[in-house]
Amino acid sequence: MSIIPSARADGALYWQVQARRNIGVRSLFLVVLAFLIAYAVLFPGLFTVSGFAKFTQSWFPLALVAMAQAILMLTGGISLAIGATVSLGAVIAATTMAGPLGVPGGAAAVALAGLGIGAATGFIVVRLRLPAIVVTLAGSFIIGGAALLVLPRPGGAVPAWLSDLLAGDTPAAFVLLMAIVLLWKLYLATPLGLSLYAAGENPVGAYRSGVPVDAARVAAYAISGLLSTGAGLFVAAQTGSGDPVIGNAFTLNSIAAAVLGGIGFLGGQGTMRGALAGSLLLSLMISVMFFLGFTPVAQYVAQGLIIIGAVAIPQFRKVQQ
Amino acid sequence: MTTAPLLAARGVSKAFFGNPVLRDVSIALQPGRVHALLGENGAGKSTLINLLSGALRPDSGTIEVDGRAVARMTPALARQAGIAVVQQELSLTASLSIAENIGIGAYPKRFGLVDYKELAARAKAACKLVGLDEPLSTPVGNLSLGRRQMVEIAKALYRRPRVLILDEPTSSLSATETKILTDLLGRLRGEGVAILYISHRLNEVMALCQHVTVLKDGTRTADRSLEGTDATGLVRLMVGRDPGDLFPKWQPSASPGAAISVRGFSAGLMHDVELDIRTGEVLGIGGLVGQGQEDLLLGLYGAIPARTASATVNGVSGLPGNVPKANALGLAYVPADRKREGLHLIHPIITNMMLPAFARLPSLKLRSRKAEGEKGRGLAAQLSIKGDLQRPAQALSGGNQQKVALAKWMPHDPLVLLLNDPTRGVDVETKREIYLMLRAFAAAGKAVVLLSSDTPELVHLCDRVAVVREGRVVRMLERAALSEEAIVSAAMGAERRKVAA
């Protein structure tokens, strides 16, 4: 993370590049660390297995939707349909997993729904050249409506063993998150994954360089959809049932987490580790304010102020330079 | 030359929206030759490159690779044929590292993943060729513009091209970097690479190239060996044309007085400018595109921050700090980009004409539609803008849009008109009308500052022309000394050579 030795062997290029990407998020990591310490002081139970498990479980869905939003923002897009997609994932899980499809079948249905919705949205945005914000706003009504059609009122069920596994006293959520992060690193090491940045920041230049710009962007939407319905499955497991409007808050929280994590609105700026740190910070902020006895209204106001501050500070620095 | 050209265009033509940009142009790139492509701004150089690299398709004529006609040239086909283009606008991604930028679109792969080891080795080799010694993991966003240009060139070399097209590669390079590039091109030439080199720096072209193609207004005016030509000869090939009777007869203005006078003026790209703008004259601002001319106008107008040692504007000392103050001092600015800066296209013509007037009215006074309508009709008649003024401004042709952009300042009777390329993309007839108008303004005792990329316009319309190069006014040409050759030589810095020749 400190000074990169330039005389290292060529094989180390990958790690040097990775280390460089930390530079922009160092100060964010420090802020997250400070909040973590505050949290640990307020809630010493963090250091028990079940305390750690509960903590990661409250963070996990937000981490997933932050990734789902960040991958789109990196390509210069955005989604206002993330919350609705989370809800749809939750109701599909709650209606299929206890039925004849079983847990594997239900999980497959959730994954297919996410990939399909994402790919369709991406196709409309990218191929028809429509603004992402409008397409996904319309999409949020359609997807939210579909969730209500699947399950008009809260109900359904997720098998108890699955709830115990994902949302019980084991840190399974944390292990799962690490696996997802690892998969993301693998994706980013493929030519298509790395193209995300070029497609977001300089699409014309990328196209001229032979980058499959459209494919990279559609793939980003598909992955984003998959992460969103995955978050829905987890929320259903947490509550043991499905709720067709449970995901609504995730749309704006996903944008807030990504922005806190340093993802720019113009595409190609920011890192996934930043978005994850942003989601952790948001999750910690909510918990810490809860422990400090803030009323819910005060929490929202404070949350908003912190987000504006977090975005404004780097901007001020840039102006001063 | 007996070998087939690696890449050639035969009689290609291309038009955009009915405007011919290239007419029946041929060019042949031979292996082991550095081929210069010269022409003024807007002569069609970039379009020709885009045709050669498959980014555009010709309306007629053919593109040939290795002597065989290609039916449908595409960027992918061009890459397969070993054609690499270093464009003027960079194609880099700031947040990716040097190595990742160099390899993008052609990454070496292992098990479906980018093979960073192989990438590092190959990118390093390409960087070494252009003298880039920064660590390969450095994000491109941390590099200066000149270093980014070198990355762009390394990116082209990484693909081991047979044909290398460079569009003004040295415009942002330092002298050392230019030297490295020049040596490199010499070496590549020795290896049999065909190189197409576009530059406005004539001394570079003279030193580096063996063959030259000159474009003027979309037609080829020369295609010859560079042996036995000099810089002056090349300039003549680029500008020689008949101005015709497009321009009004020039008459000296009666009583020049001082309108704006600045010393030690710096704004944006411009620095240390000493300039006197007189009433009753048209002062031209010439030079190659993007040398800082626009910053000069915007700085005087208070639209971007500017510093001066001393300044007097219409008798008041000091520059206006913002646009309303500039307007109050009698300055008006007409931007080059009508569509984004000059007009509000979706709004009615009359609203566009009234905008500066709105700024002057007391904020909460009710509008009088009737008075506005009368004023608008008066302006339309004065500038011969035809048709219903309630139509959106985008319904007008480019020329008429320009007239609206001019008309909106007329009710305020500005003393100084700052015009940024007012005839770009304007048809000939409207050009004539605008020229007449500008001379009439000058005759009426106003100061007109005309920034133009059209050299004949500067020669035939202006009383004096300030030529800008690299952020400085390098020459002030008086009426008697005005000629296209003089402006172009001053703009390209070919003067020293001319003296030597």
Compact overview of the structure:
Chain A has 321 residues and is mainly alpha-helical.
Strand content of chain B: 15-25%
CATH topology type of chain A: ABC transporter involved in vitamin B12 uptake, BtuC
Could you say how many structural domains of chain A there are in total?
Answer: 1
Assign a percent range to the helix content of chain B.
25-40%
Cα-atom radius of gyration of chain B: 25 Å
* Tally of individual helices of chain B: 18
Strand portion of chain A, in percent?
A: under 5%
Helix percentage range of chain A: over 70%
Number of strands of chain A: 0
Tertiary shape of chain B: elongated
Overall structural class of chain A, as computed from helix and strand content, comes to mainly alpha
Most residues in contact, chain pair and counts: A-B, 31 and 37 residues
The second-level CATH architecture of the largest domain in chain B is 3-Layer(aba) Sandwich
Architecture overview:
The complex is a heterodimer of chains A (321) and B (501). Chain A is built from 14 helices and no strands. Chain A has 321 residues and is mainly alpha-helical. In chain A, helix 12 (250-260) crosses helix 13. Chain A starts with 12 loop residues before the first helix and ends with a helix. Chain B has three domains: 7-239, Rossmann fold (3-Layer(aba) Sandwich), CATH 3.40.50; 243-330 and 414-501, Rossmann fold (3-Layer(aba) Sandwich); 346-413, no CATH class. With 501 residues, chain B is an alpha/beta fold. Chain B has a six-stranded mixed sheet, sandwiched between helices. Chain B has helices at 45-52, 75-80, 98-103, 116-130, 145-158, 175-190, 202-208, 231-239, 293-300, 323-328, 338-342, 349-360, 369-382, 398-407, 428-443, 455-461, 484-492, 495-500, and strands at residues 7-16, 19-29, 33-38, 60-65, 68-70, 83-86, 109-110, 113-114, 163-167, 194-198, 211-216, 219-225, 258-267, 270-278, 282-286, 310-313, 316-317, 331-334, 416-420, 447-451, 464-469, 472-478. Mean pLDDT of chain B is 84; it is low at 497-501. In chain B, helix 4 (116-130) packs across helix 5 (145-158) and helix 8 packs across helix 17 (484-492). Chain B is built from 18 helices and 22 strands. Chains A and B meet through helix 1, helix 9 and helix 10 of A and helix 2, strand 8 and helix 4 of B.
